[in-house]
Structure formats: C-alpha cells, structure tokens
Amino acid sequence: MPVRPTAATLLPVLLAATALTACGGGSGGDPDTVKVSFKQSTDNSIHVTDDYLADIKRQFEQSHPGKKVELVPIKAPDSEYYTKVQQMLRSPKTAPDLVYEDTFLVNSDITSGYLRPLDAYLAKWPDWDQFIDTAKAAARGEDGKTYGVPDGTDARGLWYDKGVFAKAGIPTPWQPKTWDDILDAARTIKAEVPGVTPLNVYTGKPAGEAATMQGFQMLLYGTGDGTTDPLYDETSKKWVTGGDGFKDALAFVETVYEEKLGPDVSTALDPNIQTIVRGDLLPKGKLGIALDGSWLPQDWLPGSGHEWPEWSRKLGLAYMPTQHGQAPGKVSMSGGWTWTIPAKAGNPDLAFEFIRTMQTKANAKKWYVANSGIAVRKDVAADPSYADAQPGTEFFTGLVAFTHYRPAYPAYPKVSTAIQEAMEGVTTGDLSVEEAAAGYDETLREVTDDHVVQR
Amino acid sequence: MTRPTLARALPLTPAVVLLLLFLAGPIAYCVYIAFTDLQLTGQAESSFVGLENFRTAFGDEGFRNAVWLTLVFTVVSSLVGQNTLGLALASLMQRASKPVRTLTGGIVITAWVLPEVVAGFLLYAFFRREGTLNAVLDALHLPRQNWLFTLPILAVSFANVWRGTAFSMLVYSAALQEIPREVTEAAQVDGAGGWRRLWHITLPMIRRSIGTNLMLNTLQTLSVFGLIWVMTRGGPGDKSQTLPLFMYEQAFQNSMIGYGTAVALLLLLVGALFSVLYLRLLRTEV
C-alpha cells in the first residue's frame, strides 16, 4: 500500500527542513552584492551611523551600476558586538564583505586569521597618502601588513569647569605643565569650593577600559622620555613589567583618592561612573577637572536626551601634561575604529571599492563631523569648515600629533584587566603602590605566558 | 506489525532531529570545547588540551573566590531568603482577608515578572550612595549604608530575594491549600501550638513541594547574571563575582572560550550537587 502523505506527517518534515536550511543559508556568492556589517547604536534615537551609511550606499550604487550594497547592522554594546563579529568571521557562510572593527581588537583578529591584508589595494589608492602615520599604524599587524582603513580617531585631555575655577580663584584659561600642577589645582578646589569633586580619574575594574585608557595610560605615557611604549616592547615583542613610570602613575591615582581629591571611592568604583560624570557631575557643575575623552559633547548634542548646549561656554579644555613637563610636554591616547575586509569575504574587491567611496575627502569630513570624530586625513584636518564644526574639535585635532595608541595585541584585554586591578588596589587603599605593581607583574607573567621584559 | 509503528514514529522524527540538533548538539559541542584551548580571537588554531582548563580553574584564585561567592549567594538568597520568606508569605496570606491577599500577591509578583535587568537597575537605584535606601535612612536619622560597596554580595543577594520570592510564595500557597483542614484542626484540638503544628504537620505534608521549590530556586539562582552585572558588575574588585560573571569575564572579556566553557561545566556540576543533596534530604521518611 503506497504511503499517502497527509498534512499531519508532512508539516513537521517541512518545518524541520526550513529550520535546517535556515541555519545553513550562507551569505551566498552573489558577486554583485557587497555586505557591510557595522555597529548600530543601542540607543534608538541615534541614527548617525545608519544615516551616513545609507547615504554612502546610495552614492556607491549610483556610481557602480549593477552593484548592490546590503547593510547588516548589529545592534549591541561594544563588547557584545566584538563577540558577534568574531563569531561571524569564523565561517565563509557568515563572514560579511566589509566589517567595522575597533582598532583595539584588530591585532587579535589578524592573529586569528580573520582579516585580509589590504596592502595591494592601498598601494593603488592615492588617498592613502592623506592618512596620518599613527593612524595608518593602528591597523598594522605584527607582520607589517596593513589590515584596515581607519575612519577617524579620538583623543583625550583635561576638561575643566570654568565656574568652579572662578570660585576657587584659579585663573583661566588653565593649562597645567606637570602632574603637580593638576594636583595643586585639585587641592585648591577642595579647599575653596566645598561640595564639588575636584578631579575625576577613572579607576578600577568597574570602569573597565575607561580606567586603563582615559585614566592609567594617560598618566603612564607621560612618564619617562616619551619615546618608547611603556607597556610593550616592540623590538623584543614582549610586555614590560611595572617599572618606575608604572609606579609613579599608580602613585598619582593613590594620591587622588587618598587625599579625597577624586569622587568618593564607592562612586569611583560604581559601574556607571562614566554616565555619572557625563550626565550628572559635569553638567551640574559638580566636578572641577575631568580626565576624559574627546567624544563627551556627543552626549550633550540636541536630540541626545540630555542637551547641554552651554557646555562650550562653561567648560575649558587643557592638554594632559607629562609628569615633570619633560618633552614632548603633552600626552594623549587614541583609539578609534577601522574598516576591514574579512579573510573569508566573498567580494573583497567590491568591498574595497566601498571603502574608497566612504573615504573620499567629502564623505570622510561628513562622517567626522556627524560623529564628533577626530580627523585622520591631513586634508580634512586642514579644512576650516571641519575645524569649526564643533567646539573642541580643533583642540583635539591638535593633540593627534602627540597621541599614543594602545599595544592592542592579543593579550591586551587581559593586561588591561590587570592594570585595572592594580589601580583598584591603590584606590581603595587595600594595596600600597609597591604591592599593586608587584601584583601587576605577577598577573602579567601569567596572562602573557611569561612573554615579559624588565626595563 | 512494523508498519504502524513506523508510521507512528514518523511524525516524531522531526522533533527528535530538532532536539538532537539544537539541544544535544550544542551541549555536546560545549563539552568538547571545554577540553580545548579555543579562544574567541587572538589565536590561529585551537588544540585539545585535556583537563588543562579544569586544572587551571582549581588553581585559579579568581575561580575559587567565585565558587565561594556563588555558594554564599545561593544559600543566602535562595535557600534562606526566597524559600523561608516565600513560605512565610504564603502562610500569612492563607489567613489574610481577600483584599490584603490580592494586594500583597500583586506586589510580590510584580517584582517577579520584571525582567532581570530592569530589576537590577531598580535595586541599583535603591542601594547606591545617593539612592533611595540612604534617603530613607537619612529621614530616620540612621547612619547611611553603602552595601554595594562594602557588602556587595549581600546587596545582590537581597536583590535576588526581592525578585525571586514570588515564585516560592506561589509554590507554597498551592501546597498549603492542599493540606486537609481536618488534620490541622485535629492537631489544634490536641493542643498543639503554632510552631508545633508547623514543624510536625505543615512542613512534613508539604515536603515534596519544599524539595521541588528548593531545587528550582537554587538552579535559577545559580544562573543569575543580569541582576549582578547591572548592580555591581561583579565588583568592587571581585567581591560579588559569582561563577556566571567569572565565566563571562573569562570567555568574552578575556576571549578564552575554552576556559569559560570549562567553568560553565563546573557550574553545572555545582547545580547537580545541590540537586542530589535535596533529593537525598527528601528521601528521609517522616
């Protein structure tokens, strides 16, 4: 008797079949479509990236007849975005043609074999000469090849409240020349303006990478002679144990919290400290000096939910000085994001064409202005309409010449956590500077498989 | 004979295939990964490392600390907190009038239906230095507290009690209603006081519900992540870093998927141990 397929038996089979094909459905080999993955803001009211990319897509499809761009947004906070992208890059079925990566992880992903070197493309692209050298180096692998095109950067410095300074009797514009100048100003504010937190330096594990980058490394790179990377030794390719500079930077953090120049320790170690600083302390005039990033005004723009248009009159900007004012005098740290082509991308040539469209001078400028980014193209940086677009842009663009990038090698995230732990120890007073530095050395050996060097 | 059985089994096949594919598959894959040094990034190839990850875990101070905190968190918030408070609420509500019962039930259940992250933000706002708790203490002229900083594990345990008690309350309410009225009344006539009745009548009669409730509560509590993540992020230091947070840090912040998965398996083991313990306790006869 022939088996008559009935609806009841067929339906589950169909369901199973669709479920199975759904997981196998790869990006496909459509040679005319370029798939672009990027990080979409988790805040529904912010469409800066979406609008910009939609515009580029339109331009690209117009100038490349027959070609299509498929935008694949990933809506997630930073750390989850990295995880998701790294999972996508593992397989040719899921790898997009173009992906937006934090320079902080580029080297890890190069080591994993996720990315494709772009040197052949860059050699034939005249605009590449417009990129500043430090930015070009940001996506360079240990093998010397370049794996990404940066679309801007950021910088860090000292923000100060002019109103608080007036009450404390400190003349503005203010520009400290040494670390002691900063501490002196903070001490004056503490004595003269009660109820105001004199100085914020991010610290400890709850603040995460902000503690390491905005806090610790802004100090550390201002110690010594400023010519070598105090965390990583490029020649021996080893991590550097905590030397004098490391201890001095820790001592600065210790002083801030021991003398109660910073926020109350429990606030400093609150996981939401960044929101507290940007959303509460600064706009309400309750913080004297903030060691923080160039992107702060993004939070105060119209439509952000906490507009503060007066910020440019109320806040002043000063560069972070080196420890004793030694050359080159200024310190800044930079990060930023870069466009990379996955090793398993199906249409790398088309993907690079898309990068070229994004990085025309006009489009690059549009992007820097829209996302409060700092230019990495010399021709845009020199353009007055870019510099005037937002207060602060000119100041931070000027710091790019003095900026440092993190040694973003695979072990970096673990090294960063070790730094945060050392900072937290001196912040709470549980550890002395010596003990915290010794603890860092020990953890460093552990997380880098003993690839360390003493200097 | 075979024909009808085959025909009957046929509709089940897709379900079985799906289960194998989406449930058993990932679990088996997890077990495999736990024995490799797989990383999310920063590594060209992964290799089989045997028991290395487990050895690392037991030698890792952070792991031992996380196990200890997980035990504290589970005992304080689930075993003691949710469980006894749930029973207390359930028995009080038995005697309460209908409006009181509806109101209390409503409030407790609201806490339960809130998403974990929302509950986390609410309790963060309650406990933080400038939060509600201190405003209330100030008004009462009592000293301010900062549990998120000084005793974070207690603060998150309290948060979990706040959030999870409703479940126990519902389980116990149902169980208490099952106790025949005559039994309690007979005990009362025989002169048994409240505590005696509780100890000798009520508890033994709802023994099974206690077991089920404890087991479900414990397993739920062992896997709490969002609540702690939002309130303290495992800090300050690692003073509230329970196993799920430790696992997250290793797997996704330090990119060590292999190690993180091994920790996850150990967490499963802790859950299994608790379950066995409850089952053994319950087997003893009344």
TrEMBL record, chain A:
What domain of life does the UniProt record list for this protein's source? Bacteria
Under the heading Gene3D superfamilies, the entry gives:
Periplasmic binding protein-like II
Q: Quote the protein name from its UniProt record.
A: Sugar ABC transporter substrate-binding protein
Instruction: Write the record's keywords in alphabetical order, separated by commas.
Output: Signal
Q: Where is the signal peptide?
A: 1-22
Q: Which InterPro entries match?
A: Bact_solute-bd_prot1 (IPR050490), SBP (IPR006059)
The record's section on Pfam families has: SBP_bac_1
From TrEMBL, chain B:
Which residues span the membrane? 12-35, 66-90, 102-127, 147-172, 214-236, 256-279
Which residue ranges does the record assign to the ABC transmembrane type-1 domain?
A: 68-278
SUPFAM superfamilies found in the cross-reference section: MalF N-terminal region-like (SSF160964), MetI-like (SSF161098)
Q: What is its main location?
A: membrane
Do you know which Pfam families this protein is assigned to? BPD_transp_1
Per UniProt, subcellular location reads as: Cell membrane
Recorded GO CC terms: plasma membrane
Keyword entries, A-Z: Cell membrane, Membrane, Transmembrane, Transmembrane helix, Transport
Provide the topology term for how it sits in the membrane: Multi-pass membrane protein
PANTHER family in the record, alphabetically?
Answer: BLR7065 PROTEIN, SPERMIDINE_PUTRESCINE TRANSPORT SYSTEM PERMEASE PROTEIN
Family to which this protein belongs: Belongs to the binding-protein-dependent transport system permease family.
Protein name, as recorded: Amino acid ABC transporter permease
Supply the source organism for this entry: Streptomyces cyaneogriseus subsp. noncyanogenus
